[in-house]
Amino acid sequence: MRLRNKPWAVKLVQEHPESVIDRPDPTQKIDWSKRFADISKPLEIEVGPGKGKFITTMAEKHPEKNFVALELQMTAAGIILRSKLAQNLPNLQILCADAANIDCFFKKHSANTIYLNFSDPWPKTRHEKRRLTYKTFLQKYQTVLQENGQIQFKTDNAGLFAYSLQSMNNYGMHFDFVTVDLHNEKEDILTSNIETEYEHKFASQGNPIYALHADFGVK
């Protein structure tokens, strides 16, 4: 979902190049050692973080990890940046770029988790290749993730969830966790779940939240 343009967001992003990488050259890998104080920390990436509630909460709760918010929309990047600055999160970087180039911006096997939260379902068949769980995206995630790396996916869209299960299964992925009603799972699962803005909205309306964790197994 496209956010309404906020002029202040562009200005804020331009004022903080130390926190936001804006439209980098996809032919050049990013040197993340210059962006994080400790590059040895595990790296986790959220693709399409929207307003950033999930990724900023994760960065706050897990200072032992590094996080990258990969977001195409400048307004969303600005909103995330505002939260990052307010919460003082040195372990969070914002990458304003197209997720289709994710394998261009990270070294091979450098991340341990990729989060796909409430992605655009692109319901029309002719738009299948734009879905973030389409096979070409899965191939790119496999390149970026470590051998034991994992994709964690959440959505309120039953059609996208069914499609993603089939797409990942056809790609040969292994499922560690699958649920069609996340918010009615066991307490230990709920305790570790960090809600997104959309998740809170949809769940409060009584809509089920679908979720899965999957990996690529041994390469």
Automatic annotation (TrEMBL):
Positions contributing to S-adenosyl-L-methionine binding: E46, E71, D98, D120
Span list, region Interaction with RNA: 126-131
Residues in the signal sequence: none
Gene Ontology terms, MF aspect: tRNA (guanine(46)-N7)-methyltransferase activity
Record keywords, A-Z: Methyltransferase, S-adenosyl-L-methionine, Transferase, tRNA processing
SUPFAM superfamilies according to UniProt: S-adenosyl-L-methionine-dependent methyltransferases
Gene Ontology CC annotations of this record: tRNA methyltransferase complex
Catalysed reactions, as listed in the record: guanosine(46) in tRNA + S-adenosyl-L-methionine = N(7)-methylguanosine(46) in tRNA + S-adenosyl-L-homocysteine
Classification via InterPro entries: SAM-dependent_MTases_sf (IPR029063), tRNA_(Gua-N-7)_MeTrfase_Trmb (IPR003358), tRNA_methyltr_TrmB_bact (IPR055361)
Enzyme Commission no: 2.1.1.33
UniProt: substrate binding residues: K124, D156, T196, E197, Y198, E199
Pathway note: tRNA modification; N(7)-methylguanine-tRNA biosynthesis
Keyword set includes Transmembrane helix: no
Membership in a protein family: Belongs to the class I-like SAM-binding methyltransferase superfamily. TrmB family.
Its biological purpose: Catalyzes the formation of N(7)-methylguanine at position 46 (m7G46) in tRNA.
HAMAP family: tRNA_methyltr_TrmB
Official protein name in the record: tRNA (guanine-N(7)-)-methyltransferase
Taxonomy of the source species: Bacteria, Bacillati, Bacillota, Bacilli, Lactobacillales
Gene: trmB
